[in-house]
Amino acid sequence: MDRDHIEVQQAAFDEYHDDPGDRPVMRARFEHNGSPRYLLYTIKRFGLDHDHGFHLDVELVSDELESGMETIRDRLHEGDTDLVDTDYLSVARERADGAAIVAVHPYGRTVGGLVAHEDGDIDGLADLSGKRIGVTRRLDKNWILTRAACREFHDFDPDETATLVEADSRADLTRLIREGEVDAGFQFWPLVPELTRTGPFEEVLSVSTLVQRLSGAEEKVPIATFLTGESYLDAHPDAVSGFAAAAREATDRLRADDDLWTDIGDHLMQTDDPVVVRAVRDGWRDMAVRDWDSERIDAMRRLFDHLKTVAGADALGIEEIPDGTLRPAATEL
Asked: Which residues form the SsuA/THI5-like domain (predicted)?
């Protein structure tokens, strides 16, 4: 995706960036190829932020700039942004390391899919040994979950038996897969349909199935969360609660309105292939978690404990989830 397309997407948001008035402003900085932009666009398009008492200011950025948690931590600490998203394992790692950040609302089961050449010999987890496997980074949640599942269900650790290839970005990972520099890659779920639609590739494993198997939960367990800084939360608790309410309403619209997805395909996707748009739509609806409560947060903690037992604290990069990491905005603010 080139810079011109980022600017086209930004223009779609800017059309709805009206005057905030006296509402508190929540500055959101999100990757140009990340799926949260569909939710944020819906909030802006229908004015759900103003309906819930805050003003959402969205800026799209390159994933090459935003791929590291250090960047997220610095931006929240230095006041450059008020809202970002990442997986709750990363939030917990950074909070344990002293970052004053907190997850305030779930996003969803934002894991990826293992994409391989359709003529290859990788059909699932059991086939990873001896292969070159692409990921965005070693602490990628897809890789952590895969390691845990391989150890739990197949008695091996692919970190020891496969060759891990770290890409600089999601775009670079797509290149590695297309050019055959890896035997398979764990690509983020919204980018899987375009790979499988436009090339001789297939998704041989959806990591979301591993989430549910490892967690033992019947309801969808969110992996990604929206997070903010403690200072913003303390200063604007009503804005954070308002965002949670707007996100729930936007999720309902995205689940019910097919025409909205046509509009999203026209403005926010690089392809207007209706098959790809529908695949992303259906994937988003399956991925999204509308809300959370104490029971679902308990399931997230159980998943962490299980991953730690199976894969070890070193793979997770943390011994435990610190108190205060997961804070439901609707019920505890």
From this structure: 69-256
